[in-house]
Amino acid sequence: MMKRVYWQLFFATILLAACSKSGNGPHEIDDSDVTPPVIEITTPTAGQVFASGSIITVTGKVTDAAGLYRGSVRITNDADGAQVKEQLYEIHGFQSYNFNVPHATSVTTPSDYTVTVKFEDHGNNITTASVKVKVNP
Fold first, then answer.
1. Contact at 8 Å (CB) between 9 and 15?
2. Strand ranges (DSSP E) for 10-121?
3. Could you give the C-alpha distances from 39 to 27, 36, 117, in angstroms and in order?
4. Fewer CB near the terminus (10 Å): N or C of the chain?
């Protein structure tokens, strides 16, 4: 039991140490950073149509001169709001990050999806970008 507690404390310490824009110490808010991240979604393109069984690959780049903190890529079914894919990121200090998230489609009726990319920097500035696509059976 004591060994288990030791390992839990050890890993908790490592996680806390990894949570800073410099890699050393807890996540710190940078109040001087007032410029939000910039998101470029390369694929898919708005209005792109996919066949069921094909792969929607969400690619692009996010940049922030003062360094990124965290973000997400989500694919949501517009009909019912169900999240069909989610990729979370915690990328402290990176000024530029290329994302690549694949999702295999499977529908029985035509479905509209929204691809949403959202990132936050260490100044608590948040940027969201999205594109709508269609998946046909």
1. no
2. 38-43, 49-51, 55-63, 68-77, 83-90, 96-104, 111-121
3. 22, 10, 8
4. N
SS3 assignment, position 114: strand
Per-residue model confidence as pLDDT tens digits over 12-37: 444 444 444 444 445 688 888 999 99
In angstroms, the CA 121 to CA 53 distance is 35
User: What's the CA gap between 60 and 58, in Å, rounded?
Assistant: 7
Using one digit for the tens of pLDDT, what is the confidence trace for 80-121?
A: 999 999 999 999 889 999 999 999 999 999 999 999 999 999
Q: What is the value of pTM for the model shown?
A: 0.81
